[in-house]
Amino acid sequence: MAKARTLFDKIWDAHLVDVQDDGTCLIYIDRHLVHEVTSPQAFEGLRMAGRKIRHPEATLAVADHNVPTTDRTKGIENIESRVQVETLEQNARDFGVEYYRMDDIRQGIVHIVGPEQGFTLPGTTIVCGDSHTSTHGAFGSLAFGIGTSEVEHVLATQTLVQKPAKNMLVKVDGKLPAGCTAKDIVLAIIGKIGTAGGTGYVIEYAGEAIRELSMEGRMTVCNMTIEGGARAGLIAPDEKTFAYVQGRPKAPKGAAWEAAVNYWKTLKTDEGAHFDAVVEIDASKLVPMVTWGTSPEDVLPITATVPNPADIADEGKRKAVERSLDYMGLVPGQPLTDVKVDVVFIGSCTNGRIEDLRAAAEILKGRKVAASVQALIVPGSGLVKEQAEAEGLDKVFVAAGAEWREPGCSMCLAMNADQLKPGQRSASTSNRNFEGRQGRGGRTHLVSPQMAAAAAITGKLTDIRTL
Amino acid sequence: MEKFTTLTGIAAPLPMINVDTDMIIPKQFLKTIKRSGLGKNLFDEMRYTQDGKEIADFVLNRPQYRKAQILVAGANFGCGSSREHAPWAIGDFGIRCIIAPSFADIFFSNCFKNGILPIKLPQEQVDQLMLDAQNGANARLSIDLENQEITRPDGAKITFEVDAFRKHCLLNGLDDIGLTLQRAAKIDTFESKRRQSEPWLAA
C or N terminus of chain B, fewer CB within 10 Å? Predict the structure, then answer.
C-alpha cells in the first residue's frame, strides 16, 4: 500500500517538476496573482533579460494597495501611488495579462478577487507577491506569498525553487460559542503557537469547528496563517468548497466540472498520515479575542486585562512587551474593555467579504457610531460592494454614521490616504498590529467584524456578548 | 546578483525579537517601482523622528555603526509582509549579512535572492555575537561562506549551517531564473502530463 500522505504532501507531489540531489525541488505554479506594489521590479527584470511570461493566461493582475476608497472619478491624487497603479496596467498590457481596472466591478483586494472569479481552485498551487496569499488555502490549494524575485521567476518559468515544508495539524473541535467567529479562532491559534510557531510548516486546519465554517470564515482563518509564521494554511475541500466555486466565471464547467470535482474529492489527508506537529484547540471554550500589543501573538480574550511585563521570565519577550505597551499607551492590569478607540476599520483580505459586512451590519442596525469614533467600512471588492448594496447593508452603515467606501486594502496597511494619525487607536478587522502599520504612531487592536462594530458603537473595546 | 564569498565588517546589535518587515521598511516607501535607493529609509520609523531628524540612540545612527555591514538581531527576524523591499533596503544600506536565532520564511528566502546571507545560530551563540557587536568600533566580525565560519573579534570561530544549493548560488552570484530555464524541457513534460490529468487548468 502507498504511504499515507497529508493533504499538503498530495498537492506538493502533484506539482513536482524536478528534484535536485540535495532535495531542492522545482514545483509547478498553476495560478499567479499580481498586484501593483510587488510586481514592477519583476516586470522590469523580464524586460531587461528580454523574457516573456510563460503563461499569461495563468496570471491575473489587479491594483488594490494604492487605490483610493473615496470618489475615484478623479483618479489617484498621490503621484507615486498613481504611477505604481499605471505601471501595473502598462505591464499587464505589454505582457498580455488580464487586468481589472479601478473602475471595473471585479476590482478589489487580490485575495478576494481570486476566489470570487473562480481563479482560485482546489488542488492548485497559487502564489502572489503578498504574504496573505495563504487565504486561498481555504479551498484546499497550496497558496503562499513570495518576494518580487520569485514573482519574476514564476512569470518567466511558471515554477518556483522550493524545499518541502513540514506538516502541522491544527485541529479545532467543539462548537463555536455565540459572539465568536473565524477571526477569534485564528487569533486564538496564533496566541497559542506564537508568531513564529508555524515557521517552516504548512498548517492543515481540521476539526468540527473548521468544517462548520463558511468559505468566508475558512478564508479568514487561512489568511492569518502567515501571522503564525507558516507560509500556507490548508483546509480540505468539501461540498461547501465545491458549492462556492461552481458557476464562478473562471471555474470549470460541464464535463470538466465533474472531472474536477472527482479529483478534488481525493484531496484530503489519509488516515494515519504523519504530522510533524499537532495543535489542538477547543472552540467551545473560546471567548471573543482582541490584540493588545504590536504582534498578532499579543492576543487575549476581551475579558482579560493588559499583561504585566514583570511577570515574563524570558528577557527578550519581556523587553518586547515593555516596548509594545509603551507604543500602545497601555498600562499593566488595565481591563481591555476600558480601552477607548478613535477609529474603527472593517475590511481587508481578512474580513472584507460579504459575510463580514453582514455581521457588522447586524450589530450596527438601528444603532449609532459613537460621536468620538470614525468608522470606515471598506468592501473587499466591487462585487462584494454590489452585493452589500443589493442587501441594503450600505444604508444600515450610513444610517449608523459609518463611512461606506470603495474597495481596496485601505487602512489595513495604509498605503493609500486611509491612515491613522500618531496616537490614534483603532479597532480593526485587519491582520497586523505592527508598529506604524496603519499609520506612523497609530495603535491597532485586531478584532472580528462583530467586535469592531461593537467598538464603533460604544467608543471602546467591547465584549460583543454584553452589547 | 552580487556574489557573497567573504565579508569582514562592523556588526550592529539590534537585540529585538519579531522585527517585522513593516519596521524594516515602512509602507510609504513601497510605492517605488525601482529596487534601489531604499537604504536611507531602512528602519525609518525607529531611525528618524516624524519630521525627519535622526534619532541619536538608534543603533545605525551611532557613529561606530553607520557603516555596519552585519546585523545581529533577535528571533523571528523579518516576520510579516513578503515585501522584498526589506532585503533591498538592508542591502542598499550596505548590510550583507544578518545573524539571528531564527528568521521568518519569506524574508529568509528573499535575502538569498539579493546577495544577502542570513545566518541562523543557536540563541547562546547569537548572545555572544550580540556582546561582540555591542563593542562598538571593535565589533568586527568576519564571515567566510565557503567554509561556513564566523570569526569573532578575539579570533574565536563559530560555524554555521547553510543550504547547499543556496550557498552555491550566493558564492557564484547565480540567477535562479537562468538556472531554471535550463530545465525547460522538464517543465514542458510536466505541462503535457497536467493537460491530461487536470485538463480544466489549461486555458
Answer: C
